[in-house]
Amino acid sequence: MASEEELFANIDALLEEEPQLPPPAERARLREAAGITQARLAQALKSTVQTVKNYENGRSEPKSPRLEAYQRLLKGWAAKYPAHGTPAAPVAPVAPAAAPQPVTPETFTGPAAPEAKAAAPVEVPAAPAAPERPARPATSRRPAAKKAAKPAVDPRFPHGPLAVLDGDGSAYGVDGIVLDCPATTIPELVEWTLRESGLGAPKLNRYGKDSDPLIVLTAAAAVKLGLPERLEGHEQRRSLRLPDDHPVVKQVAKAKWQLTQRGFGPWARIYRKAQGRERQCVQLAILSWDALDERSWPGVAEMESADIARVLGVYAQRVITPRGSTAVSGLELMTALRPPTKPERDEETGNWVSAYNPGSLGTEPMDPAPPEATPEHPVVVQSGWTGGFLNEEAYQWVRSVDSLSDEECMMPFAVGLDLNTAFLAAAARLVVGLSAPDHFHAPKFNPKIPGSWLVDLSHIELDPRLPSPFTPDGSRPTGPAWYQTHTVAYAQELGYDVHPIEAYLRRETGAYLDPWHDRLKNAYVDTLADLGVTKDLDDRQFLAAMEQHKQVDPALAAVLSAIKATVKGGVGKLRERPQGKHYKEGERWPALQRPTWRPDIRAAVISKARVNMHRKLNNMAKMTGLFPLAVLSDCVVYPSPGASPLDFLPYAASGKPQPGGFRLGPTPGLAKLEGVQPMLWAVELMEKGLNPARHIKGGDAVLDEGE
Description:
- 31% of the residues lie in helices and 13% in strands.
- The chain is α+β, with helices and mostly antiparallel strands.
- A seven-stranded mixed β-sheet has the order 3-2-1-4-7-6-5. The chain has a five-stranded antiparallel β-sheet with strand order 10-18-19-11-20. The chain has a four-stranded antiparallel β-sheet with strand order 13-16-14-15.
- Helix 3 (38-44) packs across helix 4 (49-57).
- 42% of the residues are buried.
């Protein structure tokens, strides 16, 4: 017979074990019997709705100290609502007020995915007759306030555009959806995604293509599927790829799938030839291979899977399903909104054929005029061109310290203003060339014709306290040079005659970037509004809201950062330079095969943005007598008597901002406070030839031409 000491030791061992919870179905029954929603329980446990859902369907178990708190709650409910007093299966409570909220998002009203195993079963309270819902429930984790209206969900893609796959097979989608993914290899993952997941997004233009589903792999998921956790090598991140003899690459080929020329890197596309109208393509993004660049997606790679899905889902809804870096996505968005072809009936045969879509860039790449190209371009190398190049770049200018007045030096502060998405504002109603360039000698200047003009602007003398509008470094031109149309037109606007020596002009024109501008502008404004920065705020309220907006919701703040990176990166990709140490000057590089390799369009956007900046600088000088200390791209630094832009921006007697100068606001092209430093600090940097705007802004003016 056991001794008393042995018995007590056994009892103590039991007490030290982890608290035992009732079965998952009983947890859900107790909560519903108490009339508590999953959202309210998640709030009490300092967790998420999806986590509570996982507790109640057995997908996961709480850890200490949440475990003890959850057990205490369930014990209390069990005492109040014993199992013998309620039905075995959960039903809607009798009292209407106690009815739990539906767990399926309102937007997901289409039919479920084709295969039932794509979603794990859950018990849903009985409700009146309603449309068929996806089997896997989901709740939105976004705040209800100021939520932008969501488009109707395409029944072909009931589970949204993308999912983040964890190592345990949980695929986290938008609005809290979690799918069960049984795949253990990359080919199985591709098959599951296309056949069972219900993932994807409808086309953005009637003549376009549906967005392929995106699967984001966590480090654990990558390892489970046979991929290395990290992709190591001496090359730049964007150049790293799995070798052709890697087992996963062989698996893909053996299963009759193909990889694009980019190979199996951080953003891998796996596809088969389309069957009729049905595309067979899946986009993968591997988090531990740095697919989400910290500069564009700050903090996202370190988030929980459900939160990553939320960030990327909002971006996909408002911009486009990511296809690579934000630069790649920005370029893809242009094509998605302006497809190169449309169906057209052949009058002779009566058959439908693919025809050019007016306003697009077509399907064939187009060589630029020599001055629009880069020095290594075949057009330049093979022709022996020595006539110079366009130099339409963003401002990087620092004012001479000698031009500072004593009054300016005595100002206490240097205040940085940043124009919201200045390049996006420049793309609005921007007329660009759609056809190949034609060469003209001694043409008469026409500000309505996009192109490149060789003209001498060195005779134009402007206030030295302002940067020249004709050069990126703000210096005065020294002789004839090539300029984009907007730069030459601004010289005319300032009252000077211009007499071009020669020009490369395009006869067919159009506002190619208009839909791109409109979609990104709406995405930017809507996301700022979700963060509490709305159009109805006055200037003081706007400054206060901008100071706090990143703390309101870090996930949406990351979306905002990605939208801004999409603008700059998309414009930069229009002139992507050759990559790789083995490139030889004069060879064609892959980017040249794209119809969207258009350095002339990039030059037009930057030229207009720089001219817009100079126009504001000039008007500010006229209205206030203030001159900038430095300009970097879309950021300008002014001496100020106070630490706020309100201390020096021009306002009318009525209190309204004066038109023409810098104005505060959340719209692209309007300004926000970028930072404040002591005036002495700014002067010391200027004396060293350094740009205080660079240090206030914390970045540079380079438009990403790679990735």
